Amino acid sequence: MGEDLRQQLTPPDKRVKMSSVQVECVVKASALIGEGPVWEESEQTLLFVDIAGQKIHRWSPTTNQIQSVETGDTVSFAVPRRCGGYAAGVGRSIVAVDWSTQMMTSMLEVDQDKPNNRLNDGKVDPIGRLLAGTMGKETGPAEDERQQGSLFSVTSDLTVTRHLSQVDISNGMDWSPDQKTFFYIDSLSLTVDAFDYDSNTGHLGNRRVVYRMEEGEGLPDGMTVDVEGRLWVACYNGGRVINIDPDTGMRLQTVSLPVMKTTSCCFGGPDYSDLYVTSASLGLDQSERRKQPLAGHTFRVRGLRVKGRTSNSFSG
């Protein structure tokens, strides 16, 4: 039996250590929907959000301290800005966050014709352009209004361009090391897609599927790309992160976690060899909570023998 298959067959509450890979719960944030991890190299801290908990968190592995800012509405991502502070997706607005004063200032609003939408995942491209998607608000756990979302880009002068519409749940995104391919997840399609990407104009073209989720893997959620151009996809309701070769469409590795609602991931640490994985607890019943006491916490995976890349800062 191959190692990948053995890991998948391990019961969820036992899947903590596999060969040289170690999974450790490092941030006990008890998030309702932990999401959007970003490693801040300058501060050596992990930035992430709790969407339904309406908080932006910043955790230092050196001190093991968490600082938080309350946002007053759903917050789906937070990314560093080149001019300092952060840009965050709060409700349908992209806001500037001054961490020192905990003040937020709205920069722009999207989907003004769809008041029941909210922003979801967002990430900055290599030249400082912000890409962010929307979705219909949840009517229940993992139940959303279909095809209400879009994918937008925002440039340094706050020009907004809509690239995709009729999206179900705009989710994970990242770029290939050569910046010529944009990887994207619309969760309910159960695929990871790729586009040709022009970093000068932000134009997307030639959409194609690079991976189709298999039975038991759950919904594709947040993702990151390593220095070798391979994808690491968090699988919501799958209790795992899968490593995909986008050139062959093959799953190379499965990292299993002791929680089922794994939501997103990013590389971090001094040499970017640690994989941080966020999770959710919202929607678990009492029985599931007893079996998954670490749900909503953030995990650090070591021993993957691969490194990530530095995160980008928004130029706006």
TrEMBL record:
Cofactor(s), names only, from the UniProt record: Zn(2+); Mg(2+); Mn(2+); Ca(2+)
Signal sequence, start to end: none
EC number(s) from the headed UniProt entry: 3.1.1.17
Keyword set, alphabetical order: Calcium, Cytoplasm, Hydrolase, Metal-binding, Zinc
Catalytic activity: D-glucono-1,5-lactone + H2O = D-gluconate + H(+)
Residue ranges annotated for the SMP-30/Gluconolactonase/LRE-like region domain, each copy included: 33-281
Active site positions: 221 (proton donor/acceptor)
Gene3D superfamilies listed in its UniProt record: TolB, C-terminal domain
Positions in coiled-coil regions: none
Family: Belongs to the SMP-30/CGR1 family.
Protein name: Regucalcin
The organism of origin for this protein: Scophthalmus maximus (Turbot)
Lineage per the UniProt record: Eukaryota, Metazoa, Chordata, Craniata, Vertebrata
